[in-house]
Amino acid sequence: MSSTYARSLPADRVRRSAQVISLLGPATVAVGVAWAIVQPYRLTLLHPLRQGFWWLLIEPPLLVMVAGAFFALVVARPLLVDLAERES
Amino acid sequence: MEPPAEMIHWLFATGLLMLALCLLSEAVVGREVWQSRPWRKYLWPGLAFGMGVFMWPVMAFFTNSAIHMYAHGSWAEVLMLAGGAELGLVHGRLKSKWWRLTMPLAFVVTGTAFIVHEQNAWYFARSAFLHHLLGWTFLVAAVIPLGMTFRPKSMALQSAFALTFVVLAAMLFCDRDLAPVFGHLSPLAGVPHR
């Protein structure tokens, strides 16, 4: 695909892409939150007494939330700016 | 001092999840838009390469048999090879499309290593079940990156590739050192701790 073609992507396709990209991060965070609600015992922060360092640091639902938030802030946000530039 | 092995699985699951999100985004917006910022085109190949680098300490510190050492060592090598080849391709240093064959190679080696280094049967414990399942998933899914070698712009293949990593991440997040699977837990496995 040439850059000329990329700039002339149909506006509705660019809009749909932007919607999907903007949803990916929050959807991932939501999955992490849902997991924490379904299996609260996987979150050692909720019962931190007598837990070791690693059990307090590495908690799977939190890892999913962090990955989603990191993606939304660091990857998706500048990608949405680039898509908006293509649309305009 | 060392974290339990299951935590290493969860950390690599997080890496695979990030990889999946980046690949899915690239599939949705197209390669041209994705690569419009220089740092972004190195993002997922760099992540794959980095995961290969981090596999070496896993090999060194979490090896309880020779077969584990070979498995983790071969993962480290093929992950670095596939990530490095993709870095070379996006940078333009590598030109031949055949370098993309390093990714299906990585899938096949990873799948084989998963199956070979799991010594227990499927229903021995959850970790055994997931190791078998991960191995076969990698082996079957190797056709996707193989197809991408010949049709790199196919959105269907790119999306399938990204979703494969979502599935693999979910499997790794489910992994526990000692837990039942579908109600099965061998008495030889020990007592679940939590």
Task: Give the SSE layout.
The complex is a heterodimer of chains A (88) and B (194).
Chain A lengths: L2 H5 L3 H28 L14 H5 L2 H28 L1
Helix pairs in contact in A: 2-4
Chain B lengths: L4 H25 L1 H4 L3 H4 L1 H19 L4 H26 L10 H16 L8 H16 L1 H8 L4 H20 L20
Helix pairs in contact in B: 1-4, 1-9, 4-5, 5-6, 6-7, 7-9, 8-9
Describe the structure.
The complex is a heterodimer of chains A (88) and B (194). By secondary structure, chain A is an all-alpha fold. Chain A contains 4 helices and no strands. Chain A starts with a helix and ends with a helix. Chain A has one domain (11-87). In chain A, helix 2 runs antiparallel to helix 4. Helices cover 75% and strands 0% of the residues of chain A. The longest helix of chain A is centred in the first third of the chain and has 28 residues, at 11-38. By secondary structure, chain B is an all-alpha fold. Chain B has one domain (5-33, 40-174). Helices cover 71% and strands 0% of the residues of chain B. Chain B contains 9 helices and no strands. In chain B, helix 1 (5-29) packs antiparallel against helix 9 and helix 5 (66-91) runs antiparallel to helix 6. Chain B starts with a helix and ends in a 20-residue tail after the last helix. The chains are: A mainly alpha (88), B mainly alpha (194). Chain A binds chain B through residues 1-3, 5-6, 9, 17, 20-21, 24-25, 28, 41, 54, 58, 60, 63-64, 66-68, 70-71, 75-76, 78-79, 82-83, 86, and chain B through 3-4, 7, 10-11, 13-14, 17-18, 21-22, 24-25, 28-34, 36-37, 40, 43, 153, 173, 194.
